[in-house]
Write a structure and sequence with these properties.
Layout: H1 3-14, E1 18-20, E2 26-32, E3 37-44, H2 47-73, H3 78-90, H4 103-115, H5 129-134, E4 162-164, E5 170-175, E6 182-188, H6 191-215, H7 221-224, H8 238-248, E7 255-257, E8 263-268, E9 275-281, H9 284-305, H10 308-325, H11 329-332, H12 345-359, H13 366-390, H14 407-414, E10 416-419, E11 425-429, E12 434-437, H15 444-487, E13 491-493, H16 498-504, E14 528-529, H17 533-536, H18 541-546, E15 548-555, E16 558-565, E17 570-577, H19 584-596, E18 605-610, E19 615-620, H20 627-631, H21 642-663, E20 678-680, E21 686-688, H22 702-707, H23 719-742, H24 752-761, H25 765-768, H26 771-776, H27 780-793, H28 804-831
Antiparallel strand pairs: 1-2, 2-3, 4-5, 5-6, 7-8, 8-9, 10-11, 11-12, 13-15, 14-18, 15-16, 16-17, 17-19, 18-19, 20-21
The structure holds adenosine-5'-triphosphate.
C-alpha cells in the first residue's frame, strides 16, 4: 500500500460515520435521532466525501431537532433565550454564518433558529447519536472544534463557551483549534458580553479554518488545528501571534524551495547516513509527502532492526524528552513555510498514527499522538540537520526520482537553506559540503568557488604557455637536427626525434601546399612540402628526420645526405642549401615551376622544405654515383669508355637544351652545372641534378668568374644579363666535355679550360685526351670534333659561345658518326 492510500485509510477511521468498504470505497451512515434508525447515506470514493455527506445529514438532523429541543428546554432556558435573542441583534451577521463544510444545511438551521428567536450558537451540546456508539471524540460539525461533543450532561444547559459562575458573573472559555487548549476569555457581568467575547474569538478561529479549507481539500478541525494559519488576520491573542511569527522561519524538514519555485526533497538515510535525493515537486505537500513516506520507510527499517525492548526504551527516553521540550511544543508542532505552504494534514495524521506505531506505545488520545509525532519530528529534525551538515557528498540517489538536469545540480552546488540547531539557518551546498551563506550572510562558499575558478584559469594559462614552449622547443630541436646534417661527421644517424614526432605529426611532405614566409614555430606543419606527390608515397618530414642519414658530400652551396627512409621504404638524397637568400615564396614558385618541366636526363626533386633559415631539397638517391666519380674511377674502378662518355655528353646536351628552352622565359638556368651534378641512373644514363637551385645572388662558379672577371660573385639577373646566365651553363657544359675528353677534373688547382686552350695552342692536341681513351682506340677524329665543341663553349666571351641547341646538334652529329663507324667496323669484322 502506498503512502497516500495509507493516509486515506487512517483518515477514514477518523471520520465519524465513515467506514471503508471491502470494495475500497467509503460508506457513510448516520442514526436518525428522531426515528432512532440508522440511515445509509451511500458509498463514496473518498473518506472526505463520505464524511461530508455524513456531516450534511447530521446538520439536517440537528436542524430538525432544534424545535423539539427548544420546546423541551424552553422552561429552563427562558431567560437565556431572551438574553441570546438580544445578543443576536448585536452580533454581526457574518458571525452568525454557520461553520463547516455542510454550510447549506447549517445555514438553514441557523436561519430557522433565528426566525424562532433562538441563537443557533447557543444551542445544546449533545452527543452525536452515531458517534456515541462508536465512542469517537470527533467534532460535531466540520470545523467547529470548540463545540466538543461530550457526554457531560451538565453541558446541555450551558451556552457555548459561557459558564455562569457562582458569583453570578459569566466566564467565557474557548478552545484554541491550533493549540487544542482552552483559552480563558475573562469574566463578564452579562451573558451578552461573555457571548460577544466568545464569538469574537470564535470568528477568528473560524476564519482560520475557512482559510485552511480554501487552500486545500476540506479538512476536519482536528487536521486544521495542526496547520499554521499563515495569512490569517492577526487579531488573536499575543500568544497566537507570537507563535505565527516563530513559524515564519520554520521549514518543513527535508523540503526546500528552489529558485524555480519548485520544491525539492531529500532525506538522510539513518542507516547509511547518506543523503538521498527524493526529487523535485510542484508543491511543498508533494515534497513533504515524499519525505515523510521515505522517512517512514526508514523508520520501519530501523525499527525492524532494533529489538522491541529497545524500541520501548527509546520511547520512554523520548517520552521523557517530550516533557523536557514540551515548552517548545507549540513551535515545533507547526512546521510551515514562509510561503504559507503547509504540511498535508492527512499526512500528519498518518504520521501521527505511524509515530504511534513506531514509538511502540499505546498513545491513548489523538492529542498525545500528535505531540508524540511532533516530538519525534523534532528529534528527527535535529538528527537530519546534523547529518546534513556532516554529509559532504550526495551519493545515494537510488531512492529518488530522476533529477531535473541542470536545475538539481545547480541546487546541489548553490545550496539549500538548512536549519541548524539554535534556530539559525545556513545555505548549504551539498556538492561543496560547505555552507555557502551563513545566517550572517557571509559568502563563504562563493569565495571558495571564486578561488577555485581562479585556480582553474591559472591552470589553463599555464597549460597554454607550456604548449607554446613545447612548440618552440620542437622548432629548435628540428633546427638542431637539420644543423646536425651539416656539422656532423661523415656518417650521421638521427635517432631521437621524439619532439619532432610530437609536434610534427600530420605534417610534412604529403601536403601539397607550400607556405610563404615561414615561421620557425610552425616548422613541421606547413613548411615541408612535397613537390611530386605521386612519388612521395606518404613521405613525412618527421620520418625523414628520424631516418638514418649519411653525408655524401659538402660543397660550396651546402651538403648532400643519403637518407635511408623506412616509411616509405626508399633511399633519398637530401640537399641542404646553404646561404641562399631566396625568399620562401620565390623558392616555392621556382620549385613548382621546375616540377612541371620534366626531362629523362634531369633528376626531379621529390620534395622540398623551406623555412627562413633552411632550404632542403629531396631527390631520389642514384646508386651509380656522379660523372665525377666515374671519371676518377672511384665508383666502379672500371674503364670509362669513349662511347659512354660521348653518350653522356649527348644526353646532357639534349637535357640542357630542353631545360633552357622551357625555362628561358622564367630565366632559370642550371646555375651550378658540374660533373658532380651529373648523376648516372641505373641504366648508366646521365641525370642532371640540382637544376635551377642557385639564384643569381648565389652564382659564384668559376665559369662566372671567367664570364664576369671584373665583377663580384654576386649580381642580379636582369634582362640584359639573363642570356649571359644561360651562356654560363654552356661554359659549364664545355668544361664537362673537357673533363670527359681529358679525364681531368676542374678544380681550384686547375682551370681545365685554360690548360686545354694552352695545350692546343702548342698543337699538342693528343696530349689533351685521356690516355685510356687512346688506349681504348677511340676515334681521334671524333674526339677532336668533340674537343672543338667544348673549346667553343668555354670561350671567354659568352656571345662567342654557341647556343645549347647548336652544341646539342654538334654532339649529336659526332655521336651519329661514332655510331656509324661502330656499325661499319662491326660489319667489316663480320665480312672478315
Ligand atoms: N641524388 C643523388 N644521388 C646520389 N648522389 C648524389 C645525389 N645528389 C648529389 N649526390 C652526390 O653528393 C655529393 C655531394 O653533392 P653536393 O651537391 O653537395 O656537392 P657539390 O655539387 O660539389 O657542392 P655544391 O653543389 O655545393 O657546389 C656529390 O658527389 C654528388 O654527386
Amino acid at each position: 500500500m502506498d503512502s497516500n492510500s495509507t493516509v486515506m485509510d487512517l483518515h477514514a477511521t477518523k471520520f465519524a460515520g465513515v467506514h471503508k468498504r471491502k470494495c475500497g470505497k467509503y460508506g457513510a451512515a448516520i442514526k436518525d435521532p428522531i426515528k432512532k434508525k440508522k440511515v445509509w447515506l451511500g458509498s463514496f470514493k473518498t473518506a472526505q466525501e463520505a464524511s461530508n455527506a455524513y456531516l450534511a445529514k447530521q446538520s439536517e438532523f440537528a436542524a430538525q431537532l432544534e424545535p423539539v429541543k427548544a420546546n423541551q428546554d424552553s422552561s429552563k432556558s427562558k431567560s437565556s433565550a431572551s438574553a441570546t435573542a438580544q445578543l443576536m441583534q448585536k452580533i454581526p451577521s457574518s458571525l452568525l454564518k454557520p461553520q463547516g463544510s455542510n454550510s447549506t444545511n447549517t445555514t438553514s438551521a441557523a436561519e430557522r433558529s433565528k426566525a424562532n428567536g433562538k441563537n443557533p450558537f447557543i444551542r445544546e451540546i449533545r452527543k452525536d447519536p452515531f458517534q456515541e456508539k462508536q465512542g469517537t471524540r470527533s467534532s460535531s460539525d466540520g470545523c467547529n472544534s470548540n463545540t466538543v461533543t461530550t457526554s457531560n450532561t451538565k453541558a446541555k444547559i450551558s451556552l457555548h463557551g459561557i459558564r455562569r459562575q457562582k458569583n453570578g458573573k459569566y466566564g467565557a472559555v474557548i478552545r484554541d483549534p491550533i493549540s487544542l487548549k482552552r483559552i480563558w476569555l475573562g469574566t463578564f457581568d452579562t451573558v451578552e458580553e461573555a457571548s460577544e467575547a466568545y464569538f469574537s474569538y470564535k470568528s477568528e478561529f473560524d476564519k482560520l479554518c475557512q482559510l485552511g479549507n480554501k487552500e486545500n481539500k476540506p479538512k476536519d478541525c482536528g487536521q486544521i488545528q495542526h496547520e499554521s494559519p499563515v495569512g490569517a488576520s492577526s487579531s488573536l491573542d499575543t500568544a497566537s501571534v507570537g507563535r505565527k511569527k516563530r513559524h515564519k522561519t520554520t521549514h518543513i524538514i527535508g523540503v526546500h524551495k528552489n529558485k524555480w519555485g519548485k520544491y525539492t526533497s531529500e532525506i538522510t538515510n539513518p542507516i547509511t547516513k547518506k543523503k538521498i535525493w527524493l526529487g523535485t515537486f510542484h508543491t511543498a505537500e508533494e515534497a513533504s509527502r515524499a519525505y515523510q513516506s521515505k522517512k517512514l520507510e526508514f523508520q520501519k527499517l530501523v525499527s525492524a532492526k532494533e529489538p522491541q525492548s529497545t524500541n520501548k526504551q527509546t520511547h520512554s527516553k523520548q517520552h521523557g524528552k517530550k516533557k523536557l521540550v514540551n515548552g517548545k511544543q507549540s513551535h515545533v508542532n507547526c512546521e510551515t513555510f514562509q510561503s504559507g505552504q503547509r504540511i498535508d494534514s492527512c499526512e500528519q495524521s498518518h504520521s501521527i498514527s505511524m509515530t504511534r506505531n513506531l514509538l511502540g506505545t499505546s498513545l491513548g488520545t489523538a492529542e498525545e499522538a500528535f505531540h508524540a509525532y511532533h516530538q519525534f519530528k523534532e528529534f528527527d529534525f535535529q538528527c537530519s540537520t546534523k547529518a546534513e551538515l556532516q554529509s559532504n557528498v550526495l551519493t545515494d540517489s537510488s531512492g529518488g526520482e530522476k533529477k531535473q538536469e541542470g536545475q538539481v545540480d545547480e541546487d546541489l552546488w548553490m545550496g539549500q537553506w538548512v536549519q541548524v540547531p539554535g534556530g539559525s539557518e545556513v545555505k548549504f551546498s551539498v556538492k561543496l559540503g560547505l555552507p555557502i551563506i551563513d545566517n550572517y550572510g557571509s559568502l563563504l562558499g562563493y569565495i571558495l568557488i571564486g578561488l577555485a575558478l581562479v585556480v582553474v584559469i591559472l591552470l589553463c594559462i599555464y597549460r597554454k604557455r607550456k604548449q607554446k614552449q613545447k612548440k618552440k622547443e620542437l622548432s629548435l630541436e628540428t633546427m638542431k637536427k637539420v644543423a646536425a646534417f651539416d656539422h656532423g661527421s661523415d656518417r650521421i644517424t638521427i635517432t631521437s626525434m621524439d619532439q619532432s614526432k610530437k609536434g610534427a605529426s600530420n605534417s610534412g611532405f604529403s601536403s601539397a601546399a607550400v607556405s610563404s614566409d615561414e615561421s620557425n614555430t610552425a616548422i613541421s606543419q606547413s613548411l615541408v612540402v612535397l613537390t611530386s606527390p605521386e612519388m612521395n608515397n606518404g613521405l613525412k618530414f618527421e620520418n625523414l628526420l628520424k631516418a638514418p642519414a649519411e653525408l655524401l658530400g659538402r660543397g660550396k652551396h651546402g651538403s648532400v645526405y643519403k637518407v635511408m627512409c623506412d616509411n616509405p621504404k626508399m633511399t633519398l638524397a637530401v640537399k641542404r642549401i646553404k646561404d641562399w637568400s631566396i625568399s620562401g615564396s620565390e623558392f616555392k614558385k621556382r620549385m613548382q615551376k621546375l616540377d612541371q618541366i620534366r626531362h629523362p636526363n634531369v633528376l626531379p626533386a621529390v620534395a622540398f622544405y623551406s623555412s627562413r633559415q633552411e632550404k632542403l631539397l629531396v631527390y631520389e638517391y642514384q646508386n651509380n654515383g656522379s660523372l665525377l666519380q666515374h671519371l676518377h674511377g672511384f665508383q666502379t674502378g672500371q674503364t670509362f669508355h669513349w662511347s659512354s662518355r660521348l653518350s653522356i655528353a649527348a644526353g646532357v646536351a639534349d637535357a640542357l637544351a630542353f631545360m633552357h628552352q622551357e625555362l628561358q622565359h622564367d630565366r632559370i638556368p642550371h646555375g651550378n652545372l658540374k660533373s658532380s651534378n651529373i648523376l648516372l641512373n641505373k641504366n648508366m644514363e646521365p641525370c642532371i641534378t640540382e637544376y635551377g637551385l642557385m639564384s643569381s645572388a648565389g652564382i659564384s662558379t668559376i665559369q662566372n668568374q671567367a664570364q664576369f672577371p671584373s665583377s663580384s660573385n654576386v649580381f642580379p639577373i636582369t634582362d640584359e644579363n639573363a642570356e649571359a646566365l644561360f651562356k654560363a651553363d654552356i661554359y659549364a657544359f664545355g668544361v664537362i666535355m673537357l673533363e670527359l675528353l681529358t679525364g681531368k677534373v676542374q678544380n681550384n688547382g686547375l682551370n681545365l679550360a685554360s690548360w686545354v686552350v694552352s695545350v692546343l695552342r702548342e698543337e699538342w692536341t693528343v696530349e689533351v685526351f685521356d690516355r685510356t681513351l687512346i688506349q681504348e682506340g677511340a676515334s681521334e677524329e671524333r674526339m677532336v670534333n668533340l674537343l672543338q665543341v667544348a673549346v667553343k663553349c668555354v670561350n671567354h666571351s659568352p656571345e662567342a659561345r654557341p647556343s645549347i641547341n647548336q652544341v646539342a646538334l654538334m654532339i649529336s652529329t659526332i655521336r651519329d658518326e661514332d655510331d656509324r663507324s661502330i656499325d661499319v667496323s662491326a660489319s667489316t669484322s663480320t665480312v672478315i
